[in-house]
Design brief:
Oligomer: single chain
CATH class of the largest domain: Alpha Beta
Order of helices and strands: EHEHEHEHEHEHHHHHH
Strand order of the largest sheet: 2-1-3-4-5-6
Number of domains: 2
CATH architecture of the largest domain: 3-Layer(aba) Sandwich
Shape: globular
CATH superfamily of the largest domain: Response regulator
Helix content: 40-55%
Amino acid sequence: MRRARLIVADDHVLLLDAIKSLLAARFEVVGTFTDGLALVNGAAELKPNVILLDIGMPNLSGLSAGERLKQILPNVKLVYLTMNLDVEVAAEAFRLGASAYVVKSSAATELIQAIELALVDRSYVTPLITKEERPDKFFYRVKQKRSPNHLTLRQREVLQLLAEGRNMKEVAYILNVAPRTVAFHKYKMMELLHLRNHTDLLRFALNSSLVAVT
């Protein structure tokens, strides 16, 4: 029987190697990545069935990377493995196309179960997120509640890089756009979010679930 093709993305190399070793016996691990932008740029040629990724990754957060990956590979299953226990972050992950959400303190068997459920088009969220709430109620709220995120994908990409301390020229180089395009997105975000200056924008980024700074 053909094994499912799996990509693993995490910015901690030791953990990345451990996850790869754990899953290699059951799945074909076809690639590993340590940042979100490299993952997006390299995933398509590896033809994965499942992408296992973290929320907090440099250059592009797991949420933004996941949204872009679903545009490039609409049939791929996204399984998040993260330290983030915020229920709203988990909900946003599913709104952006996730199939499963597991935390790093979960047992290895739970991670494998989540991947296998994703492969048969079923959703899974760890009980550590839902706590006493039934999973079906969680998924109902995910579908019914509109995401509070009013920023576009490109705006979130710019916000992620600015929050990492990059200047606008560096952001432009990474995203392969003109610096004036970055400036446009920056000031458009400030207008949409009613923020006065760059400091307020960074404070918003660090206090929100829209970006993830490790």
